[in-house]
Specification:
single chain, about 675 residues, alpha+beta, Helix Hairpins, seven-stranded antiparallel sheet, 24 helices, globular, binds ligand 5U1
Length: about 675
Amino acid sequence: MTIQQQIEQLRKQINEHNYQYYVLDDPLITDSEYDRLFRQLQQLEKDHPEYLTPDSPTQRIGAAPLAEFSQVTHHIPMLSLDNAFDDTEFTAFYRRVLERLNTPEIEYACEPKLDGLAVSLHYEDGHLVRAATRGDGYIGEDITQNVRTIRAIPLQLRGNDYPSLLEIRGEVFMPKSSFNALNERASQAGEKLFANPRNAAAGSLRQLDSNITAERHLSFYCYGLGAVAWEPWPWQTHSETLAQLKQWGIRVNELSQVAKSFEECCQYYQSLMQQRASLSYDIDGVVFKVNSYALQQTLGFVSRAPRWAVAYKFPAEEEMTELLDVDFQVGRTGTLTPVARLKPVFVGGATVSNATLHNMDEIARKDIKIGDTVIVRRAGDVIPEVVSAILSRRPSDARDIVLPLKCPVCDSEVLRVAGEAAARCTGGLVCSAQRKEGIKHFAGRKAMDIEGLGDKLIEQLVQVNLLHTVADIYQLDVLKLASLDRMAMKSAQNVMDAIEKSKSTTLAKFIYALGIREVGEATAKSLAKELGSLEAVQQASEEALQEIADIGPIVAAHIHHFFQQPHNVDVVQALLKAGIHWPQEVKGEQSQSLQGKTYVLTGTLQRMTREQAKERLEAKGATVSGSVSKQTTAVIAGAAAGSKLTKAEQLGVAILGEEDLLKLLD
Ligand code: 5U1
């Protein structure tokens, strides 16, 4: 084979793998194999520059920075979309369309509404020749150099049966993982953070230096067409067009679907709202488009938006409100968390009047003061947080947020350890807040699992001095419980039964329940498995603890310190005396209970890294694979799980959450 043929073959292979990865979401090779092919091509092109072409997959970056963006006219204007903000508005849209068309039902193409930036891509004879922003819909900016760096956008179309001019329209966006990595880098460099992936995507697309855009890892989904050279266009519906564009290598959102009734549209909306938090990119609603082009034409446009489409928005996850005051909440380990007291605001589908400010470093970094107008975010099940302050609205009497010198609950000294973001109350068990939180943790589902001993009851019991330490739980009796407000004999007996039941546990759950700093469920399990007994854990030196997987010097120091404290030793003794017991752990033993099963891990797990989960599944005999197929036993999906989760749904593969994973590993 000649050098030129080798180069051409490599380009073809790389383009094919891009297609498998981005469009079909079904990579055939590992990242390292892909990189190897890529480097091979780079080397050949370096040695033989005479064969370099602008279409080569290696030629996505490297253009000289621009002085300014030039203007591009959209010959077919880039329209905007009408919004429906609630059920009533969407129903009104749906009815209007049926009435205008005088039909009982029609078909809709449904797609996620990405929170990104609309772009137009011009392909001439299959080559990407120009990319432009939407601008005002009529004139945009030429961002070709930047768009060429986006790997999800092909530089060349697949096949050869495409129109000589094909204008693709779609959304450029920043995946959540790229956004987090970008802000992590900015934070480490002491630079200003981006407020959300949309702003970050906008900032990245409008870089005059495309090398910067390339580092930002943007992505793309197509949602329609602009100008095309074929007249008439051979496909009758939007969904057929998307299927064809996919064949040409254009990335179409895998969640796109056709709905045949109002109910199906509503189901699609609800289903996407549920998946929203676990997607790997931000969406802010669903776009419904009349599927038939003929019907779209009948409906036409009103001002700059089509009558045949609507963006049915999800409840906003960010809203503005006023920061009225800041309180400090004391946690189980004494950490003082600043909590914003807000003018109540409806956000993410609920009214929010409190939101976390995380810690004093975050407050300083975000420059937030009492009296500020702030942006509050409530996304999915995540605790509402104050994202930023709107400095232009800062009142002249805005006040600094000051860390108290004394614990607001027990008046003990508050300390900030150098190098740690958190400030802590030094009161330990003297502090009723720490005691309450420690007892709540102990009784919690993942710890001793005492059903009925909930937060409110624990607060009451600490208040009336019936609980000082967790060991006191086992000194309660029905009469003491029944003496409390709103506690009937029957409920008191139920709680007593649950307390009795909790005495039979596992060593791992017991260690976790003790609430040692930085010892989560996974670490507690490793301790139990590796050391085999409570005595061994209590007596282990810091060095011995560090021998255990995932335990570093800090965690080892916390564990060692915990068991050096006489009051902790007393509590542990009292608990054992009360009759808490567990089956003997067999040190280091691992059953092969998952032999023959294949799992795929996706998204972010809270209690362990994916690597740790992989190791532990494999230790039980399971195979952990990188891609989903019909042979997959189950997909284990953490937060922000994306295409693998979707694929599992499409193939009908079982989907497990992190709780299920812990059960499998237990
Ligand atoms: N998914 C999707 N987003 N989006 C945005 N489809 C879609 N269509 C649009 C826009 C502005 O406009 C066409 C309906 C004209």
